[in-house]
Design goal:
The complex is a heterodimer of chains A (165) and B (109).
Chain A (H helix, E strand, L loop, with lengths): L2 H22 L3 H21 L3 H26 L11 H24 L17 H10 L2 H23 L1
Chain B lengths: L2 H21 L3 H29 L9 H32 L13
Pfam families (chain A): Oxidored_q3
Family (chain A): Belongs to the complex I subunit 6 family.
Subcellular location (chain A): Cell membrane
Chain lengths: 165, 109
């Protein structure tokens, strides 16, 4: 077992454990902090796959910007564990059973899929570097790139209009 | 690394997100679980992009680069979605003084 496999399993365990903690922790602030750990683990996976640009962007955008926004909103609302509305126990159980059934179906479907022997390269390949991604982004994908700026503008205007009411 | 392991990991993360959406009532935590599901899909896209790069490395140098660009655009859309969604949650909190999604069934009246 070489170092990249050890890292893969360690990062997977970290991602899954903290994702479970996001769902089960009572305090929303703790949920946000666990979600940040999940994003760090996923960024580690990106870097392990040599997708360095996405790894760093994931950290900056998700762990840096989006999660801070969540944290701001939670602290603005002054939520804590006591005011958290509790769902019916049976409804919670039904949610867990439904998610488990989806997991079962997807894993069973994967057993039939023809993915045997396909390998995702770890640590090699240069398609994840900024140079190649930037070149593709500004040649083949330049129209969606410009459209995303309009999307951001409309999202900004929408957030301000909703927040002003 | 075999692609199946990445698929299993992404499926597990996605299902944890589904359970969170179904079992919790706090609107912010539901929103965070949606982000978790988006990230599971992103991870799978990057793994598949590396898989296609490994398969087509002799034919085209940039094989599989589309997957990583899709991840980039998913992040763009997620950032826009979060800004609007959190604004909606803040407005809902101002109106009802709660982030319980069960209060939202008043929308039907």
């Amino acid at each position: 077992m070489d170092i990249s496999q050890v890292l893969f399993y360690a990062l997977s365990a970290m991602a899954l454990g903290s994702a479970i903690m996001v769902v089960i922790s009572r305090n929303p602030v703790h949920s946000v902090l666990w979600l940040i750990i999940t994003f760090f683990a996923i960024s580690g996976h990106y870097i392990l796959l040599n997708a360095q640009f996405l790894g760093i962007v994931n950290l900056i955008v998700y762990a840096g910007a989006i999660m801070v926004l969540f944290l701001f909103v939670i602290m603005l609302m002054n939520l804590n564990a006591e005011t958290e509305p509790q769902k019916n126990k049976w409804l919670k159980l039904a949610g867990v059973v439904a998610g488990g059934c989806l997991l079962l179906v997807l894993v069973a479907a994967l057993k039939q899929a023809e993915v045997k022997g396909k390998v995702a390269m770890l640590g090699t390949g240069d398609i994840g570097l900024i140079k190649n991604l930037g070149h593709a982004l500004f040649t083949d994908y330049v129209v969606p790139f410009e459209l995303s700026s309009i999307l951001f503008l409309s999202a900004m205007v929408g957030a301000v209009v909703i927040g002003k009411k | 690394m075999l692609i199946e392991r990445y698929i299993y990991l992404a499926i597990a993360l996605f299902c944890i997100g589904i359970v969170g959406v179904l079992a919790r009532r706090n609107a912010i935590i539901i929103f965070m679980c949606i982000e978790l599901m988006l990230n599971a899909v992103n991870l799978l896209l990057v793994a598949f992009s590396k898989m296609h790069h490994a398969a087509g490395v002799g034919k085209a140098a940039a094989a599989g680069i589309d997957g990583q660009l899709f991840v980039f655009f998913i992040m763009v859309v997620a950032a826009a979605e979060v800004s609007v969604g959190l604004a909606i949650i803040v407005m809902m909190y101002r109106n009802t003084h709660s982030v319980d999604v069960n209060f939202l069934n008043r929308l039907k009246h």
